[in-house]
Amino acid sequence: MRRVVLAGASGYGRGYLRQLAELERAGRVELAGVCEIAELDAEGRELVGDRPVRADLPALLAETRPDVGIVATPIPTHDRLARAVLDAGAHLLLEKPPVPALAQWQALRKTVRDRGLVCQLGFQSLGSEAVARLAALVRDGELGHLRGIGVRGAWSRTDAYYRRAAWAGRRTLDGQPVVDGALTNPFAHAVATALAVDGSTGVEDVVSCELELWRCRDIEADDTSCLRLRTRHGTVIVVAVTLCAVEEAEPVVVVHGSRGRAELAYTEDLLTVDGVTTRFPRISPLENLLSHLDDPAVPLRSALDDAGAFMRVLEAVRLAPEPARIPGRFVRREGEWVGLPGIEAVLAQAAERLATFRELGAPWAGWLP
């Protein structure tokens, strides 16, 4: 039974705390302690029980000496806390995006290798058998020659989403990179999944990268964005997403092949190939990490080493000019909700035609002849 410490238990990390409770009941792990700076609510206190709760992660690690550390804290803290886990000699499960700069990722990889430890990332979609099946179809040529891969994602967030933390919607905070944009955080899975389907996960697998970063709100980061990249396989990948949808829909990865078409709804583990839909099982990043530690022959589904292509995209977003503001006449606001009417059709066309917003003639994006 492996001893686990969790850093971050009040926000996104609450999901890990619940899962740890289930795994502890099953006899797979022992929750050794929790690092949290906020006061735990009733559910949190019940789940943690009499285990230590500390605000200082290095002190907690020294006190508990865990086998595994989970870091599910704000993006700007990832690098520092991940290093604390590794310095304590524990294996690491690090939430996505792993770190907000390519150089930090490269340095973290070196630390993991030098320590002889294992690092898994929290890209939940990569644990889906639907993703594995689609990647196999692409790899084996069963869909024919690829015209490209398109992704559309239409979610909606209220103003409260950007008030939840000081780093929310920021490109930087206190002079340090954050890169909390639509492409790199809420739709990070869309980018990582498309790259995995193409078999292009290495840092050198991204040959070129075009970006259109837009924002409807008065924030630093993008909330409506289009990415077009070309991989070493020659595949064109377009990811078109928004957090200002009028009609929300789960994101879909579309693979355009000369002999077939596939659509993957990665949040639902649904794969549709030529009109036939199948639901697949998935394994969580934590369960996969535990299985790998028990038997190294079990591959990690989301290893730190396999995030190179994603980090190239994140770095491009980090270094890109500030997102352009969409003129207010195109935006609809109702209370704390902000919508961009017509965006759903633009996203669908981008994924189908592998085109950018400007090329599609989106009225708020201008026109390129």
From TrEMBL:
What the entry lists under InterPro entries is as follows: Gfo/Idh/MocA-like_OxRdtase_N, Gfo/Idh/MocA_oxidrdct_glycsds, GFO_IDH_MocA-like_dom, NAD(P)-bd_dom_sf
Domain named Gfo/Idh/MocA-like oxidoreductase N-terminal: which ranges? Answer: 3-123
Positions of the GFO/IDH/MocA-like oxidoreductase domain = 132-262
Q: What keywords is this UniProt entry annotated with?
A: Oxidoreductase
Say if the entry is tagged with keyword Transferase: no
Q: Which Pfam families match?
A: GFO_IDH_MocA, GFO_IDH_MocA_C3
Q: Which PANTHER family match?
A: BCDNA.GH03377
Q: What is this protein called?
A: Gfo/Idh/MocA family oxidoreductase
Query: Which organism is this protein's natural source?
Result: Amycolatopsis cynarae
- Organism taxonomic ancestry: Bacteria, Bacillati, Actinomycetota, Actinomycetes, Pseudonocardiales
